[in-house]
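Second attempt. The first submission of RNA-binding protein KhpA had a stray character pasted in from the spreadsheet, which I only caught after the job came back as garbage. Lesson logged: always re-copy from the clean sequence file. Corrected sequence (77 aa) follows.
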Amino acid sequence: MLAQVVEHLIKNIVDFPDDVSVKSHENARGELIRVRVNPEDIGRVIGRNGRTANAIRTVVQAMADHKVRVDIMDVRK
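This time the job returned cleanly.
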């Protein structure tokens, strides 16, 4: 469910919503949600000084009843 929330939030702020990929993995440290977006949208998702990314993480953590980490993957590297 949290991955769907992240996907919905991110698809509504990017210019290329069809390129958004969100995958969720469970590990010993909690849940890991990996987000990939079009390289042109990476700045929009991260935001100035990381404010947008931190806001997304805050919303997800508030909804979760366990430890959740949201990673925004830079596919340009």
